[in-house]
Design a protein that fits this description.
Blueprint: E1 24-30, H1 47-50, H2 59-72, E2 75-80, H3 90-99, E3 103-108, H4 115-123, E4 128-132, H5 138-144, H6 150-167, E5 172-178, H7 185-193, E6 198-202, E7 235-238, E8 243-245, E9 258-259, H8 265-269, H9 272-282, H10 290-293, H11 307-324
Parallel strand pairs: 1-2, 1-7, 2-3, 3-4, 4-5, 5-6
Antiparallel strand pairs: 7-8, 8-9
């Protein structure tokens, strides 16, 4: 007999902020990268090849998404299967989204910024720039982020902080590290805490493509309890062709079920597909969904420690620093 999971707003289910519209819309913005990171599922699969006709999210699709997200102040998370700053229109499109009222969180390897680009992004109050660092020294960086340059990373993170302070912007400067074999995350945290607003230590995810090289496999959600996955209740994922899938775990979009060229994000969010997915999770039957049945990373989801907490932590540090001034 399947275990029934009690559903209350205090425990699981739709956050108030996500009742009308997803809190976060995650964009597979690009499928081109300048790094060969061994923990990247796109480097360990043929996904980029399968998107050779759609390596960059087109302007019209991005603007369609930004227009709708702007109506609800939703967070556009600009990432995907590569380095977003390799998109030839990255800065212009982010400026467009902010002008429409959307929030924007940019995830980047930090290698491709000019001072002008950073100044433009920070001056419009892009909500967060998250640098994937994965190291506290050049040797570890060469192991974790091959193809990239440690000196360039340091220069650009420090430049972002300096510009944010100079421009008196609200932009949060976050760095992240994956808790993986070969990386001492305590050293990473000690090094970058003195520079950035927040150091986020991420669980190592396999995404179904990577070998498991986690240095901390302790679960947030007990696998045997099949606690509902929070991603179904707050996030919406769109690829560079406009397709939606139920979960960010499906990075190949093999379970796509709708397209935002044909239906609005709001319509899909409230549609029968998501309703069915959520109901199965809320009744302890999430494994009846194909992608969920084989998800190796479900146990690393959290209802408490999430992107929103990272943002709050960054704000706390910024506010504390301003109070001292």
């Amino acid at each position: 007999m399947k275990k029934t999971v009690q559903h209350t707003r205090e425990a699981y289910g739709m956050r108030e902020e996500a009742e009308d519209f997803p809190m976060m819309v995650v964009l597979s913005f690009i499928y081109v990268c300048n790094a060969q990171c061994p923990n990247c599922p796109y480097n360990n699969s043929e996904i980029r090849t399968s998107y050779k006709d759609a390596l960059f999210m087109p302007d019209d699709l991005f603007k369609r998404i930004a227009d709708e997200c702007g109506q609800y102040g939703s967070m556009l998370r600009v990432s995907g299967g590569g380095e977003p700053m390799l998109h030839p229109r990255a800065v212009e499109l982010i400026e467009y989204a902010k002008a429409k009222g959307a929030k924007v969180g940019l995830i980047t390897n930090g290698s491709r910024f000019t001072e002008e680009q950073l100044a433009r992004l920070i001056s419009i109050g892009v909500d967060a720039i998250e640098f994937s660092v994965d190291a506290a020294d050049a040797d570890t960086y060469a192991f974790a982020r091959p193809g990239l340059d440690w000196v360039t990373l340091n220069r650009n993170v420090r430049m972002a902080v300096d510009l944010r302070n100079k421009l008196k912007s609200s932009t949060r400067i976050i760095v992240s590290a994956i808790n993986q074999q070969g990386v001492d995350v305590d050293e990473v945290e000690a090094y970058w805490t003195t520079i950035a607003d927040k150091v986020q230590i991420r669980k190592y995810l396999t995404w179904g493509y990577n070998d498991d090289r986690s240095a901390d496999d302790s679960a947030y959600l007990p696998p045997e309890d099949r606690v509902p996955c929070p991603w179904l209740f707050e996030r919406f994922n769109i690829d560079s062709r406009g397709f939606a899938t139920l979960c960010g775990e499906d990075i190949a979009f093999s379970e796509k079920f709708a397209n935002v060229y044909e239906r609005s994000i709001k319509d899909i969010w409230h549609g029968p597909e998501f309703s069915r997915f959520r109901e199965l999770h809320l009744t302890g039957k999430g494994e009846e969904i194909a992608i969920c049945s084989r998800c190796p990373d479900w146990k690393y989801r959290s209802w408490q420690y999430n992107y929103w907490k990272v943002m709050r932590d960054a704000d706390d540090k910024i506010n504390a620093s301003q109070d001292k001034d």
